[in-house]
Predict the structure.
Amino acid sequence: MDRYPEQLWDTLFAKAPEITLFSWYPMAALETIEPGDRDAWKNKSTSFNWDDMVKSYQPPAGESAAPNWGRVAGWSLEQVDRCLGKLGNPIGVKSYKPFQSIGEDYIHNYLGNIGIPIELTPKFPADADIVLLTEGAKFDRAIVAKMKKHLASGKNVMVTSGLLRALQDKGIKDIAEAEDTGRTVFIRDFIGGFGAGKGASLNDSKQDSPAVLFPEIRFFTNDMWPVVRGVAAARGFPIVLMNHYAKGIFYVLTIPENISDLYNLPRDVTSAIKSHLQRDFPVRMDSPAQVALFAYDNSAFVVESFRHDDSEVTVSVKGDHVKLKNALTGEALHELAPVPDPREKHSFRDLPMGPPRTNFKIAVPPHSYMVFTSEE
């Protein structure tokens, strides 16, 4: 039952101008509904409260039926309506997907569900500080030229391994000499950091993450540098590659062969990916998989968990000593003590420093959303 309200809420968080509820017969029929398989979180304080929904139901005169799908929708929309006025226009990492394009299908959904808000556009976003290009961008025959122009203007580009493979004989090697070898490798251990022999483990010390199958990307050392890498049998494989081109930075993000394995990556790996892709973004999350972020142009944001268990999330808001509060309860959050950035000691060819940020820790119940507003 919780899945249905989540679909309604997500549509409204995305600020869709119109919503169609599916479908008419179960919405209108006076048939009893069941709560569904929700035992793992039924006793927790979640955004969809089955008991409160049942109590709110008023059957038509002469009827004694229990709540139907229509009451579930009505109750859920009434609850979310309390916060919609606090949200501005949605924003996200801009990703170019030409009309009628295919390739790495649904990848944006998976990225969204590891906490990266995506703003899809059918036109190349020349104004974006960083643009994410997935395999579908190969349908634009001028895509390499557009990447070069974007980088030359001082902006950044991140391409997925799927697009790299599609363009590796179509001019992308002018930007960076990297290619998909056609081989794959299972990776269980991950390291983040810059430079040979440097870096820190990104493995999850609390659980044994499964091995993930990745395509092997070959690159020339000193032309590109892996800033996130996997290790298998003492050999390194790039997960995020970085290269300076003109005035910008070019990245390659290696996507697992099974795209849903993005959910099986250690949390620190996905957080490292976010730190590059969302370096200047107003808000980003260090979170487990299946926790999503909705961001807005008025400094408000929504954190929503689709998990069956409680989640501890750290949100990083751009700015020094930002004030953050829960928009529904008015509770002010306390900022975490800043952690020194080890990149301060690195050389010119290392990653550029991002803007100052303020961090907060948030406890998110299962299948729930939380709304926050911030100000400097």
Notes: The chain has eight helices and 19 strands. The first strand starts at residue 90 and ends at 91. The first helix runs from residue 3 to 13.
